[in-house]
Amino acid sequence: MNFELSEEHSMVQKMVRDFAQKEIAPIIKEADRTGEMAPNVLERMGELGILGICIPVRYGGQGMDYISLGLACEELEAIDTTLRVVMSVHTGLCSMTLLQWGTEEQKQKFLIPLAKGEKIGCGAFSEPGAGSDFANIQAVGKRDGDDFVLNGEKMWISLATKADYAMVTVRTLFDTEKVSSGLTTFIVDLESPGITRGDIHGKLGVRAGSTGWISFQDVRVPAANMVGEEGEGFKVTMSAFDSGRYTVAAGAVGLTRAALEASVSYAKERTAFGAPIAQHQLIQQKIAGMARDYEIGRLLYLKAGWLKNRGERNTYETSIAKHFATDVSFTAASEAIQVHGAYGYSDEYDVERYMRNARGAIIYEGSNEIQTLIQADYALGWRKDKPLRCEMPAYSTEEWQST
Ligand SMILES: Cc1cc2nc3c(=O)[nH]c(=O)nc-3n(C[C@H](O)[C@H](O)[C@H](O)COP(=O)(O)OP(=O)(O)OC[C@H]3O[C@@H](n4cnc5c(N)ncnc54)[C@H](O)[C@@H]3O)c2cc1C
């Protein structure tokens, strides 16, 4: 067992940290206040290769492994959650789903521009009436010649108004024994006629990001854009969550680290009762808790990344990593506010933003209640991974780096 990062991993970490610290940290507070995405953030992430970090070079990516993806997410969310959300939906839900389930034609047409950052992707699964109960989505697709005609509403979609393409799951089969067997996933060009979209305003957190709705009214999508086979949409979507949740877990670890670092720095400066507050044991207890949770969360996501590199199913491990890391990141951010006293309660310091941003990840990419149910099913032996028709490919340096 080797706990050391490779030279390549350290390079990724440094490159992403430099980008986030130098280019985003100085402007993020204002972007959060105005509720606008920091200017050029998607373009810069594309130019630097961050958006295609774990996609093979022959598909326009950087050819790095899944651990590199996790490390990048940790660094991004240590500065702001909205940066990591971009990775969760563009890379996790969209590009990696194409890598796993897409045809060669789809990879050439959609994955290459996504991995290069020339196009932006998102994952449009949730609906106004169905999030956790995903099998009961209401959006439909009806076959018409070589096309499917899509109708319905998707809600709470990150990058809804920024993305060019969306991974979209709808119902196309209506008389299946199990409702989940009637779902089908498509890669959809969001400029298609019949699509309208908008941003949701008034969010608690991720204000410097875009979260919105997408409406489909008689939208014609070529059958060739079907990702996986007809009726495989539930499996395709759950695979997308295995990728997305991993990025959420790694990002939350970055947020915990940021809360810890802010608390350490403040606790050494601020004095009360004649001593820096760092010397008071109840403050030390908070800081020790953040440090411990950071270490545990990091091990959990790195293990999931290691399984991904080996091409082994990791739904269980990724679920635990997402659940643990997001819960403790919210606690860490809240405790960081406490360490900062009244100053933590204003946006003069970053910690209040950390807390607002951390809250969402307990809800999205499968709420933590749903994670608990997944983990219980595995622990009780009621759920066993069955082989998928298309597994997420194991990482191979040679294959990923070849042109
Ligand atoms: C900031 C943000 C960004 C998002 N981005 C995306 C995105 O990019 N793409 C996308 O498709 N979706 C996205 N979502 C939607 C998100 O995935 C859903 O909100 C989430 O799946 C929960 O669904 P819901 O909100 O409908 O809650 P519900 O499913 O209505 O659940 C309500 C509550 O009941 C609990 N609950 C539900 N069922 C059970 C059960 N069986 N046992 C115990 N408790 C249960 C839930 O955990 C939750 O606490 C985003 C949401 C947010 C807040």
Structural description of this entry:
The protein has 403 residues and is α+β, with helices and mostly antiparallel strands. It is built from eleven helices and ten strands. It has a four-stranded mixed beta sheet with strand order 1-4-5-8, covered by helices on one side. A hairpin with a 2-residue loop joins strand 2 (140-144) and strand 3. The longest helix is centred in the middle third of the chain and has 37 residues, at 233-269. The chain is globular. It binds flavin-adenine dinucleotide (FAD).
Give the structure's gist in a few sentences.
The chain is built from eleven helices and ten strands.
Question: What attributes characterize this protein structure?
Answer:
403 residues, alpha+beta, Butyryl-Coa Dehydrogenase, subunit A, domain 1, Butyryl-CoA Dehydrogenase, subunit A, domain 2, Butyryl-CoA Dehydrogenase, subunit A, domain 3, 3 domains, four-stranded mixed beta sheet, four-stranded antiparallel beta sheet, 14% strand, binds flavin-adenine dinucleotide
